[in-house]
Amino acid sequence: MNSQTWRPKDWKRLLIVPTLILCCVLLASCGPKTGGSAQEEGQALQAAPAGQGDQKEIVENEQGAANSGGQAVDPVMAVRSESSIQATIQEVEGQSVVTNPEAITVIVNKQRGLPEGYEPKDLVEPNVPFSFDGPHEKRMMRKEAAEALEELFAGAEADGIELRAVSGYRSYDRQKVIYETNVRNRGEEAASRVSSTPGNSEHQTGLAMDVSSPSVGNVLEESFGQTVEGKWLAEHASEYGFVIRYLEGAEDRTGYVYEPWHIRYIGTDIAPDLADSVLTVEEYFDETNIKL
Ligand SMILES: [Zn+2]
């Protein structure tokens, strides 16, 4: 264009280039605001570890949603919706199997099993005091949960509370042995109230840890809930991303008796809201209780 001789009627052509550039800039700046669906935001939030940078990202997502539709999407609600019990289940050979075994928000119970042969890929041993010596798979948790457990134990120690980790990860094969032993000793009905069939234990997710205290001989019994350590755990677990999974008086809804010792990592974004809700995990992630 520059090499050509200037003619007044070329002004239209000259305008085309800057107009195109302006359009591109406008489209690019609109992109993130209109493109972020609730599901994408949920995924971003779920994948993000806690930290200031991530908080900024969430705030930006909220603003983006507000700008596009006029109504902000609550990022916690978005995670609940994405992880809902209805959205994360499939039938495999007549069995109900979860579709998201690696999600921090995965829900496993008597009706919802892990895929056959599932084993978390990032199991590590948290640096906390255990109730037993020697190596064992039950020392392990998934990395994010293990780091959170270390922080929880440090917080307890700072408050003068002495906790012990008793039992974390449990493989399919070991769960099978435990369940079959319980059936032999107690009968099938009683066994299913206190233990899971293989594939249905939260311990197999690598996100659960049974916790007790030397003050009760490190036992896993309901009496732990009445100790100062058990009360501290119930009050503070959610600050570190954990919840007491099997609540008192909720056996009909969780399928398990009250277990004040069983804590489940579910993320620092979800745990405080879940604890405040006084809902079971199953209720909290039920679509009928989720409002987007
Ligand atoms: Zn447990």
From TrEMBL:
Residues 36-53 have a biased composition (Low complexity). It comes from the Bacteria. The keyword Signal applies. One of its GO terms (molecular function) is peptidase activity. Keywords: Signal. The keyword Signal applies. Pfam families: VanY. Residues 36-56, 187-207 are annotated as: Disordered. GO terms for biological process: proteolysis. Residues 139-267 form the D-alanyl-D-alanine carboxypeptidase-like core domain. Residues 1-28 form the signal peptide. Residues 193-204 have a biased composition (Polar residues). PANTHER family: D-ALANYL-D-ALANINE CARBOXYPEPTIDASE (PTHR34385), PEPTIDOGLYCAN L-ALANYL-D-GLUTAMATE ENDOPEPTIDASE CWLK (PTHR34385:SF1). This is Peptidase M15. It comes from Paenibacillus crassostreae.
